[in-house]
Amino acid sequence: MAGELEKITVKGTEASKEPDFPGYVIGEKGAPGLVVLQEWWGIDYEIKKQAKIVASKGFRVLVPDLYRGKLGTNMEEAHHLMDNLDWSNSVQDITACARHLLQEGSPNVGAVGFCMGGALSAVAAIRVPEISAAVVFYGTPNPQLADAATCQKPVQAHFGEVDGMKGFSAPEDAKAFADKLEKAGCTHELHMYPGQGHAFMNQSPEAVERKKSMGLPEHDQSTVDLAWSRTFAWFDKYVKA
User: Fold this and answer.
1) C-beta separation of 46 from 80 below 8 A
2) What are the residues whose beta carbons fall under 8 Å from the beta carbon of 24, sequence distance 6 or more?
3) Boundaries of each Dienelactone hydrolase domain copy (predicted)?
4) Which among 3, 11, 76, 178 has the fewest CB atoms less than 10 Å away?
5) Starting from the edge strand earliest in sequence, which strands make up the sheet with 155-160, in order?
6) For 37-91, what is each residue's pLDDT tens digit?
7) What is 6-238's CATH number?
């Protein structure tokens, strides 16, 4: 078992707006590292569950609290928090987390994120030298923050075929993202899931109910299991190796 998440203070980088910031760690110190990046809700029950799943596969996990303790309890609040996020400073948060894991003894560090965190995991692969590989769930980066056509790290991406978030994670956005990765010549995979919309990886009981209240497609655990298996195969190859 991976145990429970422990709240820690992470030292910021020289370019960070704060000297330090909060985060959560779980997993054996010195194991291959993964920075796990939150959805627009904040550090809630779902991202904590995902961190535990990742840690159970033999990784040391660090989850930066990008909102500094704030939570979105409904879509309006979550949208407000994401709109007000300093994305450039979040890149520094990811850099600081990767450095923290490396200093603890992790031989390599990857990044995985969901929704907002998915976009940031893509940014990490493009802009954070300490990140060895990334897995992106239903989120694409703003090209002004990070141009996927310049990516040189292995990236695996997962999107739903009926995701309606146009401009961010709709099928055409996923394809455009993959096309840029192809142009960059970096190793990549794009997986599209039939009948799945946004947030299909949310699997805690509370999150499944939340998806239902948002009108998203029915939860399908087999899709979740398949996506996790692909994710861990990717990280086993590019972070554990």
Assistant:
1) no
2) 5, 6, 7, 8, 43, 48, 51, 62, 63, 65
3) 21-238
4) 76
5) 6-11, 20-26, 60-64, 33-37, 109-114, 133-137, 155-160, 188-193
6) 999 999 999 999 999 999 999 999 999 999 999 999 999 999 999 999 999 999 9
7) 3.40.50.1820
Residue 63 region, left (φ>0) first, then alpha (ψ -120 to 50), else beta?
beta
Collapsed DSSP state (helix, strand, coil) of residue 96: helix
Nearby residues of 22 by Cβ (< 8 Å), 6 or more positions away: 7, 8, 9, 10, 64, 65, 68, 69
Count of C-beta atoms within a 10 Å radius of residue 35: 30
Please report how the helices 87-104 and 116-127 are oriented relative to each other, as an axis angle in degrees rounded to 10: 70
Residue 55 Cα distances to 14, 32, 48, 142, angstroms: 29, 10, 11, 29
Instruction: Give the whole-angstrom CA distance, residue 70 versus residue 66.
Output: 9
What is the reported pTM?
0.97
